[in-house]
Input
Amino acid sequence: MKRIFSNMTFTISFIVISTIVVRFYFSDFAEALASEPDFFPPDEVLPIASCQEWTENVRNFDVTDEEKAEQITVLMYHRIIDDEDIEEFHFDDNGNLFSTILVKSEFEKQMDLLLEHDYTTLTSLELQLFLMGQLDVPKNSIVLTFDDGFKDNYNEAYPILKEHGFTALNFMITSAISLNDRKYKANEFQYLSVSDIESSCDVFEFQSHTYNFHQRTFNQAAFMEFKPREEILEDLEKSITNLANQNRSFAYPYGAYKDESIEILEEAGFEMAFTVEYRDAVPGDSLYEIPRKEVYSDTTLDVFKEKINLKD
Output
């Protein structure tokens, strides 16, 4: 009898609690049910071929031996969020802003500094030729990169980059692209929409960060290191299709790769790939192991100057 009573009490309690939860979060459930598909279709082609033609142009910088760069700093960003939009959601358990978030005011200061000191942002092709010893570029040359393809890249970073006359590489997880242009919310993990991409392709050079292999196994092994060769290649080919066959460069998720990863990228037709090794890129570097310096949430302007080798 006690067991029956206990079971009845549990069942009634569960129904009551479930009803309260559903009523309280009904709008969230409804929005989730009505939301767009989880993944951008693997056979869908982004309408970016024509608006990315500028990435094929190579400038003649006409620099003297004294003026040409011997090394290039490649910077890596993830999210740029307006200072006023920062909420508890953006902090870790220790009360620190997540390292991959940079507040907009700091990003603007960094871009102002680059502009003030006449920095030139290079395309991936110009960087490639520099690393191959086939192109001289000015000393104050730099490459800006963004990983993952977050929607705030368009809402916050794009206007600043455009105003400063800068370009950047944007490595997208193409399965995360939104078909519909949802309202931007800084407290959500939103990714670029098709409309965002079309509107910003005069500044962003869109390249691959996999289709849906920006993941780890339960043992924390990156898919690019763990998954079978055929599966990795299939994922990469999907991302290339999404990007209208734009496959010059690739960014390793988590910076994780092995020798076979490079072989797979070569087979997929990629010409270069970016790591997270912290140093400057120099001619002769492996095109599939290009180093980058990440800009963190706590990167002060003085530290930023050190990253770009700017001396007062």
